[in-house]
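Running this now, will post back.
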Amino acid sequence: MRRHRSRSLSTQLYRIRCLCRRYENWGQRMFGFGLDLAGYTTGTTCFAAAERGGHDVEAVIFRGSVFSPKAKWKSDAPHSPILKAEVETLQRCLHLGNVAVDVPIDLQELRAPSKATRIWELTNRPIDKAFNALPPLADRIGTAVARFHAITEAGGLRTLLGHSLFETYPAGAWRVLKVTSACYKGPDAEECCNLMCGECNITPPLSNDHEIDAVISAVTAVAPMEDLCGQNDYCDLLKKLGDGYSISEGFRLLKILPRSTHVRFEDFERWMERCENY
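Update: finished.
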C-alpha cells in the first residue's frame, strides 16, 4: 500500500510539472507527438512530432528513437532497460506537449467480460465496433497494446490519459475527414500514399502508412480543440450501436486538417536536445 501511494504521488507531481512547463511556454513553441506503435519484433514503429503555427504544421519523423529497434522473435534480451528508456522518452515528450498514440489504451470493459451483453463486446470496445477496427486484444495489434500498457504502468502515466496523453485512430480520422484515397495499406500502397498526402496537404509525399499514421497522430496531438471531434460527434458515431455506450477515455480524433503539413526527417536525440534547450 505504501508503495502504491508513493507511486501515485510521484505521478501527480510529474503531472503538475508538465502543466507548469506548459504554463511557462504559453504563447511560445508547443509540440505534439505521434506514435504509430507496433510490437517489438516488427521494427515498423514510427515516431513523429508536429509544431503548429496558425493553420500550418511543421512535422518531423524521427530516426533513431528508442521505439525503432527491432527485437528478435522470442528474444531473451532483458526487458527492463528497454522499458525504462521508453518511459523516459515519453516523459521528455510530455514535458514539451501532448502525445497521441495509435493504439488502444483504455480497454473499458474488455477485462470484465461478465458485463458484456452482446457477443462483440467480448472483443471490441464501442469505438472499435463503430469503426470496424481490429479488436484490441487480437494477435495483430495485441502486442502493441501489451507493449504500451507496460509503458504506461511502469511510468505511472495512466492519470495523464485525456489530459496530455491520448489515444487516436488515423483510419477513423480518414472516415471523418472523408479522405477518398485511404487505401494506403493495400497492394498499391506507394501510389495511394502519394495520393493521400496530396489530399491531406502533406509535403513531401510519404512512402508508407506507418509514416503517415505517425504524422497524423502528431498533428492530432497538437490540434486546437475546434479541429477535433467533440462529444456530439462521438455520440453520433456510437448511436448506431444502441444506448449505453461511451467513448474510450482519452480518445482524440481529428476532424479538420491543417492548411499544410511539411515533413522532414531528423535524429530524435538531436531534435529533442535542441527543443529542450530552446
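The CA atoms of residues 227 and 256 lie 5 Å apart. More later if anyone needs it.
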